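FAQ: What does a multi-protein file look like?

Like this. Sequence, then tokens, then the next protein.
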Amino acid sequence: MGNQNATTEFVFLGFSTFPKPHALFFLLFLAMYITTLLGNGLILATAWLDSSLHTPMYYFIGHLSFLDVCYISVTLPHILKHLLAKIKTISVQACLVQLYFLVTFVGVECLLLAVMAYDRYVAICHPLTYTLVMNKKTCAHLVVASWGCGFLNSVLHTAMTARLPFCASHSLNHLFCDVPQLLKLSCTDTSINQITLLVVTLLLGVSPFLCIVGSYVHIAAAVLKIRTTQGRRKAFSTCTSHLAVVTLFYTTCMFNYNRPSTSHSVYMDTLASVLYNVVTPMLNPIIYCLRNKDMQEALKHLLSPKMPSSL
């Protein structure tokens, strides 16, 4: 094999932006991790146990919650470990494993958010055929397709990245392993990787976003045709949680990947990665609980103590 990696491990520089000691940041990130696990776990349990939530919308919300748990669990345990460790390194092999799962979950979330927008489009614009179009089989196929595309995309990026020789540097200006940061460390031509990254970003990032925008353009047109204010508010209320999640996800995503270079790149990379990879999965269940009345009622029913039946 002529393509040998001179670098066997990477050093994360993103932690240099945190003032020492790191114990306070460890407790903060640990609290955020626990909040994310509890919040998404509660939504999963509620959607599973409450029969009134056995609908396509909550089926997709359940998958989104599961995805957020997987998403944050890929990186945050490593961040917590490195906050307490003196040497903040990761082996090339472990870095590629982290990269594989991170890229998978990001791609799946982009597609799943588009699927959820399509579900709301059918529900509001074609309510009479909703149960026929969004049946259990269709919902399952859409979810499987989202996960399948995410895994295939990740295999492509991970395989191409693994073939690169990392001999230019071993320092990552980040808190975890991601494709753009790894490409900067290669001492060979990465133009093919860059083009592939751009094409896949257009297919799995921009295209789902355009589908979401198109769905909500049709939804807005349908809602505006409703004559009563109460009717318009009721119709659009089923979309507000999803819109908030989409806005949060794509805003932090663009902030993470499309920022211009600055003199404080390490600090900005750290801030962007925290917003994108930690804050978003934590806020998603809070958004759905605060903005969704059906979810609120189901949570009250699930958490309220059961009264013993009278003899």
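And here is the next protein:
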Amino acid sequence: MRLRLDIAYDGTEFHGWAGQRGLRTVQEELEAWIPRVLRLTEPVTLTCAGRTDAGVHARGQVAHVDIPDPADPDRMVADLSYKLRNVLPPDVVVRRVGIAPPGFDARFSAIWRRYVYRIADSVPDPLLRIHTTVLRAELDLQRINAVAPRLLGLHDFAAFCKQREGATTIRNLLQLSARRAWNDVAEITVLADAFCHSMVRSLVGALVAVATGRREPDWLVGLLDAGQRAAEVRVMPAGGLTLEEVGYPPDRELAARALAARAVRSLETSQ
């Protein structure tokens, strides 16, 4: 039986989501506790919607795990949800456990991920220091919102990604916006069908360069034609980034979406 887990965590003390030998990660924390709580004799493997890097936070992470069919599924789900909240450390919480619908895949069934990057560019608030990046220059958010529409749509974001062998850097950027939030913190929202490694933090780094006047908007737009990692783009610190939400299609479309998402895209085949 496949379970869906909705998860939140403070990434400060984690070396990211994915399991790494000798390092504390969100995946390993959960994979250690779930078999113990369910009294399973075999280990389990979680698959997540977005493999966050070391220090990145999540409020809306989604994962799935396959377990042996229980005698009473509803009771098992209720017990697992209750017990995980009691045994997990305070920097990770499983908000919800549910039986996944047919065809659900936490990674490949997702149709979008929404990240928010938070920057304190005036007087830093010590109560927000873990989840914001302090910038010693004021951001002109109007410059971000003016250039944002030119970045939307299907593009090769290689300039903003740490490339991995065999992986595509073509992504569909669906939303990009900036606003002033509580206590005057600048929030940059980035929503796309998927993200490649370090894409959000690099894209925010380029937006910060434009918002502080160090770069012009045309420079940023021109990076979409670079075709390779741009050395002049700063990768912003991990602590300001939070995975806020993951979107999925209706249940009847989950399997088809998962199948389509596994195909390697190119700009030509996507048109």
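Q: Is there any per-entry metadata?
A: Some entries carry free-text notes. For the entry above: The radius of gyration is 20 Å.
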